[in-house]
Amino acid sequence: MAKLEQFLRTVLSSLNPRTYNKLSKAQLKDSWKYFFTLFFLTMIVMCLLAIPNMIKLPAYLREQLTSFNSLDIDVQQEMNRPFLLPQQNPLIMIDTTDMENERKAKVLITEDSITYKFLPFTEPKSLDVGEGRLLEQKQEFAIMATALILLLLPGILLLLAVALLAKYILLIFLSGVIGFLLVGFIHFHIRLKQLFNVAIYASTLMIIIELLTKPFLTSNFFIHYIAYGVYFILGTIRAGYFDAQKEDR
Q1: What is the DSSP string of 89-146?
Q2: Whether the model pTM is above 0.90
Q3: pLDDT, tens digit, 9 for 90 and up, residues 84-109
Q4: Pick from 148, 174, 192: which residue ends a domain?
Q5: DSSP letter string, 139-171
Q6: pLDDT band with cut points at 50, 70 and 90 for residue 114
Q7: Residue 141: which domain range?
Q8: Beta strands 92-94 and 83-85: pairing type?
Q9: Peptide bond just before 58 cis, omega within 30 deg
Q10: Of 118, 148, 178, which residue is a domain's last?
């Protein structure tokens, strides 16, 4: 509980530019620990906020299928062996060769049907995708598509987390290095370590805005980057000093 209280205090401090003189003097390992804690906790909250959208997904897909007067899946292909994704313990298997007698994947796609079984101790369900049949099974197709998305969701979230982490870390690194090069031209004094700390804590509002708006908005119009830039500049000003201010410090 004490750690959570300290973390929340740090979040609030990060949203107040006046505290950046103190935050800039923190140990870098503590700053990075705060950054990763903030990121993963915000990711968890983002997932919780997205649950209502996932609940509405089958109805949404069913509604979108009403846009079609007819829908046929006609793929010209010739296979010499089944396609497995991944190779070991596959989630999806495409097989139009009839070579596989035993169903090995959670989703089996053949020439005219899609068979799926996502939960243990349940019977496989089949969706006929033959000519003119798909639109007659809107409900079944919507349920299957939703279940498939949920099945792939952990992998999608992992890729999203890695991509976002790489972006944030690169932005923090570039801000620190470029900022350190620029402050010398204006005779502003601040150490590189302080700039990295400022960049880490300035990312707080950026991370919160970007992640917590993803379940609701397709774009936040770069507001998170603007917030980051404002906090980085204000935090840098609070953490460092000009030559004329040296005697006052």
Answers
A1: S-SEEE--S----S--SSEEE-SSEEEE--STTS--EEEE-STTTGGGGHHHHHHHHH
A2: no
A3: 777 677 778 777 776 655 556 778 77
A4: 148
A5: HHHHHHHHHHHHHHHHHHHHHHHHHHHHHHHHH
A6: confident
A7: 56-148
A8: antiparallel
A9: no
A10: 148
